[in-house]
Design goal:
Blueprint: E1 6-10, H1 17-30, E2 35-39, H2 53-59, E3 64-68, E4 73-77, H3 84-90, E5 96-100, E6 109-113, E7 128-133, E8 144-145, H4 150-160
Parallel strand pairs: 1-5, 1-6, 2-5, 6-7, 7-8
Antiparallel strand pairs: 3-4
Helix pairs in contact: 1-4
Length: 162
């Protein structure tokens, strides 16, 4: 893995991972941190739209297409899924990288739970070091935070990542 400060947000679909990640980014940026994120999807993704010039370049067979505008750019590459280490290695320096998804990777993570009925991930993953849920989880000794207690979760992440 990388020497960067990284921390993950994991959980089942519709548990609130994206909302928590978004709110943590806002909190850390408010604190003056430079934050990057990685979002893992379990399906094919396409950030391009049919009919655009860059889409047409890819459709014609380009293995890599850079889409460059005045304030941002994206490089789309036709390739097998890279490892999380490869993705981390391509990011610019940041104070913190928040990783949404990647349930099976070994970086420190907080598990987001939407309901007590959801099967917990923490018992099978020693990298899960806290739980975010709107109810007190039963069984287990991990720190628990309400999903909307963003400042406390950010403080915890800051301490755990050094």
């Amino acid at each position: 893995m990388s020497s960067q400060r990284i921390f993950g947000v994991t959980g089942w679909k519709n548990a609130g991972k994206t909302t928590l990640t978004e709110r943590l980014v806002e909190e850390f940026v408010r604190r003056g941190w430079r934050v990057s994120t990685i979002k893992h999807a379990h399906h094919d993704i396409d950030i391009d739209r049919p009919g655009t010039d860059s889409y047409r370049h890819r459709a014609a067979g380009a293995g890599e297409v850079a889409l460059v505008g005045g304030r941002r750019y994206a490089i789309m590459r036709e390739a097998p899924e890279p490892s999380i280490s490869e993705v981390l290695g391509r990011l610019s320096p940041a104070d913190l990288v928040l990783i949404e998804g990647y349930k099976r990777e070994a970086h420190l993570k907080i598990e987001v739970r939407a309901s007590p009925e959801a099967e917990p991930l923490a018992p099978g993953d020693p990298a899960i070091v806290a739980i975010a849920a709107d109810y007190q989880p039963t069984g287990g000794a991990l720190p628990w935070f309400r999903r909307d207690d963003i400042a406390a979760i950010a403080d915890f992440i800051a301490r755990r990542t050094g």
